[in-house]
Write a structure and sequence with these properties.
By secondary structure, the protein is an all-alpha fold. The chain has helices at about 15-70, 80-90, 95-105, 110-120, 125-135, 135-145, 155-160, 170-180, 185-190, 195-210, 215-220, 225-240, 245-250, 260-275. It is elongated, with a radius of gyration of 37 Å.
Length: about 280
């Protein structure tokens, strides 16, 4: 083997102390690096901890404020209770739901009225408890009104069910009208309900909402077996004001029920006058 291809001999430190110093430096550097990383991690860990503490403090502050307002609901002065209800509604926290629902039983009507509005402001978190209150005769009226202020699909079927009640059908109709367009599909389906009350009130609600999307369904109701439903459908079409509705109600001038015939004559006359002055 030539000298050029010979493997170079390994060089070892000539002084053992130099090797020891080198090893010491390596260990020292490793320790320093580990310490530095630990310090950085500690700093990183402190950031979310501080942020979390701020969140916790804020939650505790809000909780304390809610509890203060809940205590004020027991005040003998109705004006104080009213302001507490308004404040709880503005907070919009789900922890306010139960106290606000209890306020629907308040002895002062002004407190009850603002409790309805406050529950509407809280919104969806209040739906389940309000639906349960529909079983209670004493506050059903107020629960219905509150549900009408919450745009949540869960309120629709319970409100439609209340159309079957002679005592609360008007309240339920008002609530569905207040919901407006979100209630349209459910109201149109209700036109096929077996219960006359449901059909009638659904027609009334659709007429008050005045959405042209209901025209075809209302035209079909002109053939309903109940004379009042036919008449109400004609009035609803007149409110919407579409010419298709005007043409559709003209055959009711020959309706077998005299009341329907007379009222439809008036509806068409008023419609013609309104069109002429528009």
């Amino acid at each position: 083997m030539s000298e050029d291809t010979k493997k170079p001999a390994e060089v070892s430190p000539s002084d053992p102390s130099e090797a020891g110093d080198e090893l010491t430096d390596q260990v020292s550097d490793a320790i320093a690096m580990t310490s530095e990383r630990a310090s950085e991690q500690t700093a990183m860990d402190q950031l979310p901890t501080e942020a979390t503490e701020d969140v916790v403090l804020e939650e505790e502050r809000v909780k304390d404020e809610i509890e203060i307002q809940i205590d004020l609901l027991k005040d003998q002065d109705w004006a104080v209770r009213r302001e507490a209800v308004i404040t709880l509604g503005e907070m919009g926290d789900e922890r306010c739901v139960e106290p606000l629902v209890r306020s629907l039983r308040d002895g002062d009507w002004q407190v009850r009225e603002v409790a309805i509005e406050a529950l509407g402001m809280v919104g969806s978190p209040a739906v389940e408890l309000l639906i349960k209150q529909l079983r209670d005769w004493d506050i059903r009226k107020y629960a219905i009104k509150a549900l009408g202020k919450i745009r949540d699909e869960r309120v629709l079927e319970p409100l439609i069910a209340q159309l079957r009640s002679d005592e609360f059908k008007e309240d339920a109709t008002d609530a569905l009208v207040e919901l407006g367009q979100p209630a349209m599909e459910t109201l149109v389906k209700a036109l096929k309900d077996k219960d006359e009350n449901v059909r009638k009130q659904a027609v009334i609600a659709l007429g008050r909402i005045q959405d042209p999307a209901a025209i075809d369904a209302l035209i079909e109701m002109l053939q309903d077996r109940d004379w009042f439903t036919r008449l109400t459908a004609a009035a609803a079409l007149e409110k919407i004001g579409d010419e298709r509705g005007r043409d559709a109600i003209k055959p009711l001038l020959r309706d077998p029920d005299l009341v329907v015939k007379m009222r439809v004559e008036r509806i068409l006359a008023a419609w013609k006058k309104k069109t002429a002055t528009a």
